[in-house]
Amino acid sequence: MDGVGSNLKVVESSRRIRYCDGLLRVVGLVLTLVAAILTGVDKETKTVPISITKTLPTLHVPVTAKWHYMSAFVYFLISNAIAFSYSAASLVASMAVRTSKDKTGIVLVVLDMTMMGLLLSANGAAIAVGVLGQYGNSHVQWKRVCNLLGGFCHQMTAAIILSLVGSLIFFWLVALAILNLHKKSR
Amino acid sequence: MASTDKPTTVSTPASEAAPPAAAKYSALDVGLRVLLFAASVSAAVVMGTAKQTEMVPVPGFPPTIRVPFTAKFNHSPAFIYFIAALSLTGLYSIITTLASISVSRKTKTILLALALLDVVFVGIVASATGAAGGVAYIGLRGNNHVRWNKICNVYDKFCRHIGSAVALSLFAAVLLVFLSMISTFTLYKKIR
Hints:
The structure holds two protein chains of two kinds.
Chain A: H1 2-40, E1 43-50, E2 59-66, H2 71-95, H3 103-135, H4 150-184
Antiparallel strand pairs in A: 1-2
Chain B: H1 2-11, H2 14-48, E1 51-57, E2 66-72, H3 77-102, H4 108-141, H5 156-189
């Protein structure tokens, strides 16, 4: 009687973990997709008055900001796209995992971890360049650009935050799998 | 064939097969952690010693007037984060090397803590590498869309330091991925 009860409980908890796993993967999929789309459609054009000398009249020059002008943002978009396609593939693969002894599960943990590293490095690069855009760097005379292109910067910030949450989702996936292994181990 | 194989592996006593495998994993684990310590500390030191003073023409003045300008790692928040993260990783690798050596028969809790912390440090080192690499790339190539001029043609030694530090931390990140793979496999082997 007791054995049957504990067995039922194990089945119940493993079903709950698989449900949680699938849900996290779907959230990660949506977050990385939205982050990639937000980065891809981010474009702003402004006319900026430039006065070269006081005698010449001020020139109005159109300035455009696009994601592919900055290599860090290109890396960010590509990483998010890879993470999106990986989470779609892993969602299918995780359906096939029946027990925690399954080899597919352990491969998924390793791949999840790699994907987390990829997303976090892309976030690090995008944030570092975003901070440069926001504050500039007076030591090497890199002027800040977010006072001119506010809309572009805000949309990029939103994309970075979404992608950061996405990488935390991947971390939770790995942590959940490790905790599950720990619970089942001797 | 497989069905005849399985009972034989089950029937062999676990004490015969398990210790060599565990010892092999443990030796590899300690070796990788020592390597991680070397990589992360040298990355932090190489980044910390990146400093170069050059005579640079001042904008707005004739090019014959040159003023000494210094490039140092603490001029960029990304590089400060890099040093903090890599130093923390060095400290972590010392602690976990000692833990791996001293605790010969590892308990479940230590294995769990190692596995989780390894994953956390994968994230920390990856983000530090990304941040420093992103800024270093702009320094190397510049960006004419926002008129950020490249600086590596002036500060060549400084840029070599930054590049080596980023390469070392990339190596540290790969080591950490392998380490957490080992930690996860150790847990996986203990499954009933």
